[in-house]
Specification:
Blueprint lengths: L17 H9 L7 H35 L3 H4 L3 H37 L5 H4 L8 H8 L2 H27 L1 H6 L5 H41 L4 H12 L2 H22 L5 E4 L4 E6 L9 E7 L1 H12 L3 E4 L1 H10 L11 H20 L20
Parallel strand pairs: 1-4
Antiparallel strand pairs: 1-2, 2-3
Length: 379
Amino acid sequence: MAEGGGDDSQEKTEDPTPRRLEKAREEGQVPQSKDLGTALVLMAGATGLLLFGGAIGGELKQMFEFNFALERGQIFDTSQMLQHLGQSATTAAVALTPLLLALGVAAFLGPIMLSGFLLSGKAVAPQLSRMSPIKGLGRMFGIRSLVELGKSVAKVSLVILIAVAILDLRTEDLLAISSESPNRATEHTLWTLAWSFFLLSCSTIIIAVIDVPFQIHDHQKKMRMSKQEVKDEFKETEGKPEVKQKVRQLQQEMTQRRMMEDVPSADVVITNPEHYAVALKYDGKSMAAPVVVAKGADEIATKIMEIAREHRVDVLRTPPLARAVYHNTEIGDNIPEGLYMAVAQVLAYLFQLRQYRRNGGKKPVMPKLPIPDDLKRDE
């Protein structure tokens, strides 16, 4: 049962998600229109007959003459039979090749025009549900079967109406054939049949134009999802909230671990001193500006200062600068240009402090650090 216990959650009210459509395509479930394929094949055949019919008729006429105009000796010569058969087959194949190619191309394009080229082993894999007699009877007498029956009746009716209209238009033409010579009558008949077939094939275009949107709509309807299915898919693809939270926690721990490993390489750690700590590193030979190698607040800041002191990295109390760097940078970033002067003064003070520790003398005083107003951050 779906979460919340509501029946409406089981209704297919939601549009299919891209993942749902992708999985359906992998299983071979795509919108298909048999009428579109039929229309393409019939139109290709009719057009091929109109374009190549004359050449085909001429080749076939020569083939008939070659086979029927035989001398008496050839009739009783069995070796001539294979020769005539082979030559006739070659002639027929050459004559019909353009028409067969057109039909082959149309038969190939028909299934892929609507949904693109698709190879799916799942679509042809045997399924026990398809072999169930009970489910088979359900499909035979279900609503979908009645819809398909209605479509078939409508298609046949449309074709019959157009056939009757074509026959009515060609009545005088057909009656005129009886008064023509045999050769002329044969050509006239074939030409009339070819054009009638072409016009009749055009009726399938009307059927396809109606069927294609219907199949797309029907497929979209079948792919609809319930609200619970959408939620389940989101959890499956995006991950459960608790898992995502755990992943984020682990990522943060890994980032902090790497960050802490970089603290000993820092030149100085500037602090708030209690809330923030930022570790800076600068190498004038390889860096254009000081880089933030670690930063943190509260407990993390305390940990950064502990590691710094363990490795004898200077920790300086510079509250305004520490807050400005903390809030305006990320780990690995160069410090903002507006803080160049302040950090340069800190590094200069640090150099003087180290000199004082080694040689004694007058202890340096931390200068007042210039922090631009747009980079200042309050406590």
